[in-house]
UniProtKB/TrEMBL annotation:
Entry keywords, A to Z: Membrane, Transmembrane, Transmembrane helix
Cleaved signal peptide residues: none
Keyword DNA damage (UniProt): no
Protein name: Membrane protein
Keyword Membrane: yes
InterPro entries given in the database record: Peptidase_M50B-like
Pfam short name (any one): Peptidase_M50B
Lineage: Bacteria, Bacillati, Actinomycetota, Actinomycetes, Micrococcales
Annotated TM spans: 20-40, 90-110, 116-133, 140-159, 165-183, 215-238
Length: 241
């Protein structure tokens, strides 16, 4: 039981907040990952896991029955829930996917600005465990287990410095990756239109659910993600001493 007490003390004890320079260097490293196609493809799986977790969480909150989550090798994902095919609950469930990583990033930035890096890592571990029990395909299982193993290694055995760097890197990844994912979705929508493929994106589905243009929802999702990035950056950088 000693390790539980030690873990709880680490979770509830604020750690020193790094300098603005260190925070910005971490952001630069994450931005590099987002700009290098091969690195982005690998890291994108983490964003997909959070994306699908957000769909699942909101589906449960609005009273839908969750059937399972899938994560695919092309970094796409699918969350299946059962309930009314239309209405506010379905709209909220679909909209949660691209906004989920951004909003989680804002919450993570708030925690980090107060020194709770270890608490953030444990929260992310809990999210992964909740996703794990809903995974319904082998590749998704592998992706979540590998991500979880890396997170456990950092959280349980990493030094305070390693934990802090990892927490800030993950937060920047959520904040910076969310708008990139929306722009990526819009690019895929354009390619699909040129090929005459029906729009199966979240924005397209939101458009059909609300009888509005899918492009309007791309703009809404992008604005939410950019606002989250701005607020998160203020907490990560603006409050540094």
């Amino acid at each position: 039981m000693d390790w539980i007490g030690d873990a709880w003390q680490d979770i509830t004890t604020p750690q020193p907040v790094p300098s603005s320079t260190a925070v910005l260097l971490t952001a630069a490293g994450v931005l590099l990952v987002l700009l290098v196609p091969a690195a982005w493809h690998v890291a994108r799986h983490g964003l997909t896991i959070v994306h699908e977790a957000a769909h699942a969480a909101v589906a449960v909150l609005v009273g839908r029955r969750l059937s399972g989550i899938r994560v695919h090798s092309d970094t796409s994902g699918l969350t299946v829930s059962v309930g009314k095919p239309r209405g506010p609950g379905m709209v909220a469930t679909v909209a949660a996917g691209y906004t989920g990583p951004a909003l989680l990033g804002v919450g993570a930035a708030w925690l980090l600005s107060r020194g709770y890096a270890v608490a953030l890592l444990w929260i992310l571990l809990v999210v992964l465990v909740l996703v794990l029990v809903q995974i319904r395909n082998w590749y998704g299982l592998w992706a979540v287990l590998v991500t979880g193993a890396l997170l456990v290694a950092v959280t349980v055995w990493g030094s305070a410095t390693v934990q802090s760097v990892a927490a800030y890197a993950m937060t920047w990844f959520l904040l910076l990756g969310a708008p990139r994912a929306v722009l990526e979705m819009q690019s895929e929508r354009r390619r699909g239109r040129r090929r005459g493929v029906p729009d199966a994106s979240d924005a397209g589905l939101l458009g059909r659910l609300t009888h509005t243009p899918g492009a309007l929802w791309v703009a809404v999702l992008l604005l939410v993600c950019l606002a989250a990035l701005a607020l998160g950056a203020v907490w990560l950088i603006g409050l540094q001493v």
